[in-house]
Amino acid sequence: MTPRFALIGVVTSDMAAALAFYRRLGLVFPEGSEGQPHVDAELPGGLVFALDTEETVRSFHSGWQPPEGGGGRVGLAFRCESPAEVDVLYEDLVNAGYHGELKPWDAFWGQRYATVHDPDGNGVDLFAPLPAAE
Questions:
Q1: Containing H/E element for 46?
Q2: pTM of the complete model
Q3: Which of 7, 17, 103, 132 is the most exposed place for a label (fewest CB within 10 A)?
Q4: What is the mean pLDDT of residues 68-89?
Q5: In 3-state terms, what secondary structure has residue 82?
């Protein structure tokens, strides 16, 4: 039997803020989850995205502390339908008050690419393949 990758977990200091951010990226969480200590969203293909509060993680990992200076808890990337969608989504998130770490640019590896931070300082990349050069 081979284990199968099944879950991406993110530790958050503010569940409501994290839910608002990830809902803007299209993840679906149960309504009223803002006060919960653990929340899951099923992703395409059966993968699960989970949010846990810092208090929840401390309750089962004694001595756990968030990383110094925020961030560094996980890195995530969301594939967009087009390079234009990267630009629109980046602007939407920045205009909503989220930190834009890297403005959209055409990366040398063939993608339109940008990075924003979620409310806990985790880098969230937005990308889409660039049209093939002719």
A1: none
A2: 0.80
A3: 132
A4: 85
A5: coil
Mapping DSSP to helix (H, G, I), strand (E, B) and coil, where does residue 84 land? helix
What single letter denotes the amino acid at residue 96? A
Q: How many CB atoms lie within 10 A of CB 108?
A: 7
pLDDT in tens, 97-119: 999 999 999 998 889 999 999 99
Please say whether the beta carbons of 126 and 78 come within 8 A. yes
Is 84's pLDDT higher than 90? Answer: yes
| 55-64, 66-75, 113-122, range with greatest mean pLDDT | 113-122
To 10 degrees, the CA torsion angle through 19, 15, 13, 39?
A: -90
Does pLDDT of 22 surpass 80? yes
Q: CB count, 10 Å around CB of 2?
A: 3
Q: For 25, how many CA atoms within 13 A lie in the half-sphere containing its CB? A: 26
CA distances, 133 to each of 110, 113, 129, 130 (Å):
10, 17, 11, 8
Residue type, 85: E
Q: What is the DSSP letter of 132?
A: P
**What's the token pair of residue 54?**
């810092």
